């Protein structure tokens, strides 16, 4: 036969009955309240600009295919790109060691060639 389960004489105080201490209140409080900082979203975000970024943007814009290609209906499947003479002269001035340091990536969403690769890497 099984024995009866007898409850203990006095139950310990439950957590609900005890008053919260200041430490427990602090633990339950969120660590950061947005209502205390209403202008948080308005703080200016400083963009980090490096000198080479503007130069690279200008170079990519100068070398973009839209600048140098004619209308697709004129050319059919061939791709004719004519770079300005001053740009070619500047590229000749760069030494061979510096040429291998610069890699320009070109991405073409549309192209006049059938089945084109989506990315072209050109080493200057």
Can you describe what's shown?
By secondary structure, the chain is mainly alpha-helical. 35% of the residues lie in helices and 8% in strands. The protein contains 6 helices and 2 strands, in the order H-H-H-H-H-H-E-E. The protein has a two-stranded antiparallel sheet with strand order 1-2.
Which terms would index this structure?
124 residues, mainly alpha, 6 helices, 2 strands, 8% strand, elongated
List the helices and strands and how they pair.
Blueprint: H1 22-28, H2 51-63, H3 65-68, H4 72-75, H5 85-93, H6 96-101, E1 103-107, E2 119-123
Antiparallel strand pairs: 1-2
Region (Disordered): 1-42
GO molecular function: peptidase activity
Protein name: Putative ATP-dependent Lon protease
Task: Give a brief rundown of this model.
By secondary structure, the chain is mainly alpha-helical. It has a domain at about 55-124. Helix content is about 35%, strand content about 10%.
